[in-house]
Amino acid sequence: MKEKVDVLISEEQILKRTKEIADELNKHFKSLDDGRDIVLVCILKGSVMFFSELAKRLDIPVEMDFVICSSYGDSTTPGALKIQKDMDISAEGKHILLIEDIVDTGRTLKRLIEYLNAKNPASLTLCTLLDKPDRREYPVQADHVGFVVPDKFVVGFGLDYAQRYRNLPYIGVLSFIEQA
Ligand code: 5GP
After folding, report:
1. Which contiguous run of DSSP H or E holds residue 111?
2. pLDDT tens by residue, 83-140
3. 65, 88, 104, 160: which is the annotated catalytic residue?
4. CATH fold of the domain at 11-71+80-151
5. 7 alpha carbon to ligand 1 midpoint, in Å?
6. Which of 10, 42, 115, 149 is a plausible cystine mate for 51, CB 3.0–4.6 Å?
7. Cβ(178)–Cβ(4) under 8 Å?
8. Is-catalytic flag, 104?
9. Dihedral, CA atoms, 75, 78, 83, 89, nearest 10 degrees?
10. How far apart are CA 145 and CA 18, in angstroms?
C-alpha cells in the first residue's frame, strides 16, 4: 500500500489561527493580573509544533513543562492513565495551559485533566490545535480550538503515523492507495 497525504489545513492557516488563540490568551491572562505563575504544558509528542508556535506568540511570562501519557480503556470506560513523564514544575496554585494536538475520543484528556486537577492548580485551560468531535466518547471540550476536523486520520504539524510525518508544516489527510 502506498501512502498519500492531501493538504487539509495549510501552514499559513495554522499560524494565523495560532496567533488568534495567543491573542485571546494574552488578553485573558493580562486581565487576571493575579501574579500567579502560568505554566504551558506540552503533551508530547504530537503537540510539539503547536506548543512552540503558540509559545512564541505569547507576550506574558510563562514557564514550560512537558508530559508524556497514554490511556487504556474503551468506549465505556476511560481506563487507567499511564504517565511516562510527569510535570517537573509544581502545578499547585498556578495557571496551567494544557496544549494538545488533537481531541479525538477524549479518553486521554479526560483522565489527564482529572490527574492535573488533583494537583490543585489555580486554573486549567485546554488549548487544542485540532478537534475531531464526531468521534467523541467522553465529554471533553477545549477552551481554545484551532480547527474542527472531519473524522479522517490526519498527520503533520506534530501529528504522526507510525512516528512519521510529524515534520510536515501543514495538516494533511492520510490515505492508503492499493498498488497494482
Ligand atoms: P483520544 O484519547 O482523544 O482518543 O486520542 C488522543 C490522541 O490520539 C491524540 O493526542 C493523538 O495522538 C491520537 N490521534 C487521534 N486522532 C488522530 C489523528 O487523526 N491523527 C493522528 N496522527 N493522531 C490522532
Report:
1. helix 107-117
2. 999 999 999 999 999 999 999 999 999 999 999 999 999 999 999 999 999 999 999 9
3. 104
4. Rossmann fold (3.40.50)
5. 18
6. 42
7. no
8. yes
9. 120
10. 9
